[in-house]
Amino acid sequence: MKYVRTNVYAKGGDFSDPTILWYARGVGVLKARQITDPTSWRFYAAIHGIDTPLWEQYGYLSPSDPLPPQADIDLYWNQCQHGSWYFLPWHRGYLLAFEAAVRAAVVSLGGPEDWALPYWNYFAPDENALPPAFGMPDLPDGEGPNPLYVAQRWGPTNSGKVYVPLSQVNLRALTDPDFTGVASGGSPGFGGVDTGFSHGGRPHGRLEHQPHDAVHVLVGGSDPADPNLPGLMSDPDTAGLDPIFWLHHANIDRLWESWLQGPVSLGNPTDPKWVNGPASVGQRPFVMPWPPTGTQWTYTPGDMANLADLDYVYDNLAPAGVSPTPAVALEAPPAPVKKRAAAMAPTRHNVEMVGASEQPVRITGRDEARTSVRLDAPMRRKMTARLDSVAAEAGAAALMSPGERVFLNLENVRGTSDGTVLEVYLNVPAGTNPAHRQDRRVGSVGLFGLRKASAPDGEHGGEGLTFVLEITEAIHALHLESALAANELEVRIVPFNQVPEESPVSIGRVSVFRHGR
Amino acid sequence: MTAAARARMRVRLPLLAVGAAAWLALAVRLGEGMHGAVHPGGWSPTSLVAEAALMFAAMMVPLMGAPVRHVRDRSFAARRGRAVALFAAGYALPWIGAAVVLLAAAAWIVAVHSPVVLALAFAAVAVFQSSPQKQHCLNRCHAHPALAAFGARADLDALRFGVSHARWCIGSCFALMLLPMLFTRGHLVVMAGVTLWLAGERFERPVPPRWRWRGPARVVRIALGQARAWLRPPGKEVLVPRAPTP
């Protein structure tokens, strides 16, 4: 049977759409099961990640709840792949297993046998608000409480109004031809960096960074009464508890397929380590409980590489749905993708640091933070000469080609406020409000996974996350304005939402890297 | 091979070469009558330090790949060699000091000739190996701090990172390192086994600290998996998609 994933807004995003109504009913069945049942709602959420104190605080777990056997916990829980080239294939398998469990519940209630998850394409015109069905406390016709509703979903302004501000998300990742990137300061690639089993690596691949991370924290936000409490979607250890999580990831999965079928993609990795997954080198396998009884299903990234082989299709692969909205267009690269495709060649991976800040940066409240990136003069000359050379060879459009690229790194970002988005600007003139210079904005960063990455016993030994933003065009423009001659680059970091005073965000170092020949 | 894998290899190969040279020297010393913590001519301060340095080079240098890559990647190209050298100095000196203490302790345990003392030593190793403290140290070995890029602060940060990395590395490895020194027969074989054990532990991702036995079975599985990956013939893998059914 062929399963078709459709746009959640196809019929308005409310309960008049049977796909959504059956999703709610199916989720209700899974939620009624004990956490000891591998096909229960909470068990699937814990596969992504579980933080027991947070779950207890939010009422999703009680100290008296019986837990699954430790062997099952060790096998299944805390498995999500982040900061890794396994991010996309792991989540595809996770979606398939969860979707099969919901489908089995839907069928048991008399629903359609071909039910499939809808996706939420927040880039489509007028579809960036939370689909209405997810914000209603009750099901229609007196069916009872709405299983798709959660209280801990506070949105980008922590007000409970949930939407994705289009100025904070972009589709630039889809312009990257390489699936795999590097962790040394250059492009992390469309799909992420070559790692082993990675429950929270760094840096995140470009699609994982944008829009994935940003949407997580923009939807989840933080508790307005206690900004240290993240919304469910804001934290990897609670994200799977929010029913909108699965629609967000269906969209990320759709964007993977869209990239694969697009004009710039060089395809999925063929390296055996990716194809066969971390289990092939003795690490944890990717494993899910499969309904109806929770049978153990093990899969590899290679198994997930081709959506058609899995009998799935999306109703629309256009990344932004129809045509880009003005806000998205602002962020989208101006370079024609076909021209890139014509000149396509694998990125050369000579990565060198060009400059770095000399002091850490601290961010609280809504106050912007400034830092100066000191450029090494010989490296700055090398970088600008290469940019000039690439531009001279094939025109400005070639700047988006893999010939010479420049990246800004926010290194060792630490804190506990996952529900934070930071806007990053380069060389905004003194006395000018950055909000008035959108041409100087190089991107937004959602701090998804910050708390875990900052914990001393977390994946990174407490040293936080590292974010990588492409700034090739911005640097070339500044170079043409002779603004780089002073060997200083001013970086302004503006919180899009409130960072609690008592738990500031710190950035260990801001650096610039060139990536090319 | 991916770019990241090539970068790993570029750092790993010289470290493995240093480790191999140290193993060769240890094998030569075996022929000279060195057996674990038993020195044929008795220990002198110089011989203790020399033996500790050799142990460090054989067992610890091959594990330095990830932090060395961090230092290298986050330094200006012109400063990479200097930064890595400072990191290595900061890492090696505390470690060699710790190895001297371990050797002296092992020499005393062996010299006492008491099965009870020996049993207590093995029990202490097993208890620490199972402890949350061991896991905490292992977790902290994954910490890669921000490093200053310019001038004396860059030098100091590289050195400081070496010392802090040594601290957590000593914390996670010292108990297992004691084991081979207690063996007066088969010393090198046990040492090789412990080295693989330690290497396997480094491949594991951090997990919340708790009491649990961290035996070698898991690391043997990882080592076999790594070996399989290395020995697998190059070339494009044939994708054999499976239906998502168990």
What does this structure look like?
The complex is a heterodimer of chains A (517) and B (246). Chain A has 517 residues and is α+β, with helices and mostly antiparallel strands. Chain A has two domains: 3-331, di-copper center containing domain from catechol oxidase, CATH 1.10.1280; 351-516, Jelly Rolls (Sandwich). Chain A has 13 helices and 17 strands. In chain A, the strands form five sheets. In chain A, strands 9, 10, 11, 12, 13, 14, 15, 16 and 17 form a nine-stranded antiparallel sheet that branches. Chain A has a two-stranded parallel ribbon with strand order 1-8. A two-stranded parallel sheet of chain A has the order 2-3. In chain A, helix 5 (87-108) packs across helix 7 (244-261) and helix 6 (206-220) runs antiparallel to helix 7 (244-261). The termini of chain A are far apart. Chain B has 246 residues and is mainly α. Chain B has one domain. Chain B is built from nine helices and no strands. In chain B, helix 1 (3-31) crosses helix 3. Chain B is globular and about 55 Å long.
- Radius of gyration of chain A, in Å, reads 22 Å
Q: Can you tell me the CATH superfamily of the largest domain in chain A?
A: Di-copper center containing domain from catechol oxidase
As for the CATH topology of the largest domain in chain A, it is di-copper center containing domain from catechol oxidase
Q: What's the overall geometry of chain A?
A: globular
Helix content of chain B: over 70%
How would you classify the helix and strand content of chain A by structural class? alpha+beta
Q: Hey, roughly how much beta strand do the residues of chain B contain?
A: under 5%
Count of helical regions of chain B: 9
Main sheet makeup of chain B: none
Helix content of chain A: 25-40%
**Please, how many domains of chain A?**
2
DSSP strand tally of chain B: 0
Global mean pLDDT of chain B? 88
Q: What is the overall shape of chain B?
A: globular
